[in-house]
Amino acid sequence: MDLLPHLVDLNADYARAIDNDELERWPDFFLDPCLYKVTTADNLAHGYESGIIYADSRGMLQDRVTALRQANIYDRQRYRHIVGLPSILARNGTELRVETPFLVVRTMRTGVMDLFATGRYLDVVPCDDERQSLRFRERLVVCDGARFDTLVALPL
Amino acid sequence: MDTIAECATTRRCWPSDSLTRVPYWVYQDEANFEDEQQRIFEGPAWNFVCLEADIPNRGDYRTTHVGAMPVIVVRDADGTINAFENRCAHRGALIAFDDGGNVQNTFRCVYHAWSYDLAGNLKGIAFEHGIHGAGGMQRDIRPEGHGPRKLRTTTLYGLVFATLSAETPPIEEYLGADVLGRIRRVLKGPLRIMGRFTQSLPNNWKLYVENVKDTYHASLLHLFFGTFRITRLTQGGGVLVSSDGGHHASYTIDRADDRQSTAYREQQIRSERSDYRLADPGLLDAVDEFGDDIRLQILSVFPGFILQQIQNCLAVRQVLPRGIDRTDLHWTYFGFADDTPEMNRRRLRQQNLVGPAGYVSMEDGCVGGFVQRGIAAAGEQVSVVEMGGEGADSQATRATETSVRGFWKAYRRCMGY
Ligand code: FES
Ligand SMILES: [Fe+2]
Fold this sequence. Notes:
The structure holds two protein chains of two kinds. Helices cover 23% and strands 42% of the residues of chain A. Chain A has three helices and eight strands; from the N terminus they run αβαβαββββββ. In chain A, strands 1, 2, 3, 4, 5, 6 and 7 form a seven-stranded mixed sheet that branches. Chain B has two domains: 47-155, 3-layer Sandwich (Rieske Iron-sulfur Protein), CATH 2.102.10; 177-415, Naphthalene 1,2-dioxygenase Alpha Subunit, Chain A, domain 1. In chain B, the strands form four sheets. Chain B has a seven-stranded antiparallel sheet, with no helix packed on it. Chain B has a seven-stranded antiparallel sheet with strand order 12-18-17-16-15-14-13, with helices on both faces. Chain B has a three-stranded antiparallel sheet with strand order 7-8-9, with no helix packed on it. By secondary structure, chain B is α+β, with helices and mostly antiparallel strands. Helix content of chain B is 22%, strand content 27%. The chains are: A alpha+beta, B alpha+beta. At the A-B interface, strand 1, helix 2, strand 2, helix 3 and strand 8 of A face strand 12, helix 7, helix 9 and helix 10 of B. The complex binds FE2/S2 (inorganic) cluster and fe (ii) ion. The site of fe (ii) ion (FE2) has 6 residues of chain B, from helix 6. Residues 211, 217-218, 221-222, 364 of chain B line the site of fe (ii) ion.
């Protein structure tokens, strides 16, 4: 089965969930347990494990959403993800390793727009059950730069 | 001293002797910003430059800044740490332009290949004697005076500080016994770097430093703290302020009777939401690794260093001014070399609390900008810093702005206000 179109769909829907403010759908793109981490190319190169967002269960992803909805204070803003084509790096029968480039434009309440983040997703996507839609076992968000403007509220 | 009315016509004039009033021009004035470079960052202050763990081996270096000044920090052959200005004696180019690396024995400026030893001494000039007898240097220009400036360095439990002033006292004396003890408490063994992130803030550097020292806001602005009882003003704790005012350590102690406290509900404060529950409470699976029931300790060293312990989430932060309304905040997350895999995972999870996307730090990234924007037309007005009195002494409560006043005490002494 050609999985590429399914990966493209997965990424497109993932981006829509975040960009169209349907954050409650975001945890559903992941299996449980999972790994979601936002880090930088520098940290990856040094073997530093920390992320500015780190979740190793779907519950932690749900908590992110709850915190953003109920707890955290930040300027109203929107992302627009432009997600490139996935490259399947490896397939070992039941699991794909995929790399996908992204860029995110952030528009603030004031109308100020920034090229907020660019980088690549390094994903692990199980594909053992063809009836199931694809989900992430692992999604590392590796930002090209080490600098984040003001704050990272919404997930990348 | 001048009254506010007299001051209104003169920027750069402090409106009151009291530590409870801070004029807003101090976050806006370009000339003041330039003075800060001379009087504070290049003055009698210890500036945090890196961790020893950043440069463990001979020839390892990091590039950083002391205020606006670019600086190289490097491990010398004998294990000591040198720091010198990252500016070539020839035409002023950066001597090292990457974030860090290893240079063995020599730094070589890329522009015309002049070379420096690990102490920042000029060692070689390319084509010094010209080519085939033509060109070259007419005379020996090596004498000091225009080379990169050297900084004195000191280390403290794995932290590296640097100063340009001969007057800066030894670090232990600079900090005072209270704050020193609070650093020793956290930095109990060899450190292990876990990650580095830079956050750019849309505000003056002092607004961020004040925010760090402001124990009053912590559980009011940050809902996450309050609801999960990581820190609340009703918990035990207090603030230590060094006698010069510049350094502080605030802390909270776990206290069992807090769960019954209704103080927040009575105040109708936004950050009280009893219905808020974590789907994965693993985030709060903390252990008392320092054995003293202190759940949280935030410590600052004047002018721009922060050491943070929030449960098992440890980090240092370096505050670097980039302009009157731009600041870079450099985070280094760390653990200890002997962390178990469980402790490592605990730290990774708890790091969600801090940094640019931190459940409790996220707001700190934007409130400075809210102030910077709010005061845009109020350069001649003052802020009110009166919680907990008028002094800058240590206090056994965190419903106080004592360490903010301490900052201004130290700042005004350096600046001559
Ligand atoms: S500027 Fe460094 S060698 Fe010329
Ligand atoms: Fe805060």
